[in-house]
Amino acid sequence: MTHPTPASSASATDPRPIGVFDSGIGGLTVARAVQRALPHERLVYFGDTAHLPYGDKSTAAIQAYSVKICDLLLRQHCKVILIACNSASAAAYELVREYVGSKARVLNVIDPIVEYVGRHYAGRTVGLIGTKQTVGSNVYRKKIDALNLGIQLQALATPLLAPMVEEGFVHNAVSQSVVNNYLSDPALAGIEALVLACTHYPLIREQIAEFYHAGRTDVLDPSDTVAEALRRLLETHGLVAPAGAQPPKHHFYVSDFTPSFEDSTRLFFGQEVDLEHYPLWE
Ligand code: DGL
After folding, report:
1. What single string gives the DSSP state of each residue in the chain?
2. Residue 143 is part of which domain span?
3. What confidence tens digit (pLDDT) does each residue in 62-112 have?
4. In a domain, 10, yes or no
5. What is the pLDDT of residues 108-133, one digit of tens each?
6. 70 an active-site residue?
7. CB of residue 108 inside a 6 A radius of ligand 1
8. Which of 27, 181, 208, 230 lies deepest, with the highest CB count within 10 Å?
9. 182: CATH
10. Same domain, 264 and 175
11. How far is the CA of 20 from the centre of ligand 1 (A)?
């Protein structure tokens, strides 16, 4: 089987898949936004469920996992690798870009929303919630400060939220109480927008918005912004997939399989998908 080399003209098409990876199934919220925005693109998704959660791991560990996952996605001839995990984007984006080189384009979930914040919130105070890894890395602060637009970022690690969502606590009294507790933290006082800097949080977006109901805080879900950035990247580099008569057949791999992960795909992707076990670490 032959595979086309990357196209150089913006009008060319490229049928190769887009690789998407996350620590688990949370990145399916990003994959879902991509599928909605770019329905002709075929996705190869890898969820590193054997090492979940990344949010509590060291930078070195996340980098090692990410590189190995990229090997798999490159073997699958992916034209783009989308790091659909804030923790991995924070810890491993630069390394992955260097590692992948010219074999594929690499996109993270941080730069598109930072750019959006720069366009809409100059001179204002913006909050952010994410895992310990994402918040501790300070990567959002560095990127927002580099814009030099007078945006003040106030970030808070909210490590209970991802496992809570994974357990299906998304629209009940327990989740509302945990959400309210975190969002009442003084670290987030006076913010005019809140970035949901973890792929699990779009699933509790309504509850977060509910907390701010009386105020004027915008809740920013980066998924659609990421999908738009991906569209621009594909168009700019002549990588858009040709429109087929049938919807593309996506593949969803996990490094550790349990039926409960498969059940949860409905929550994250909007429909249940067949997870294939790919034991990358055996
Ligand atoms: N997907 C991760 C993120 O966006 C959250 C889950 C984890 O800690 O692995 O940061």
Report:
1. ---PPPP-STT----PPEEEEESSSTTHHHHHHHHHH-TT--EEEEE-TTS--STTS-HHHHHHHHHHHHHHHHHTT-SEEEE--HHHHHHHHHHHHHHHGGGSEEEESSHHHHHHHHHH-TTSEEEEEE-HHHHHHTHHHHHHHHHTS-PEEEEEE-TTHHHHHHTT-SSSHHHHHHHHHHHTSGGGTT-SEEEEESTTGGGGHHHHHHHTTTS-PEEE-THHHHHHHHHHHHHHTT-PPPPPSS----EEEESS--HHHHHHHHHHHSS--PPEE--TT-
2. 111-222
3. 999 999 999 999 999 999 999 999 999 999 999 999 999 999 999 999 999
4. no
5. 999 999 999 999 999 999 999 999 99
6. no
7. no
8. 27
9. 3.40.50.1860
10. no
11. 14
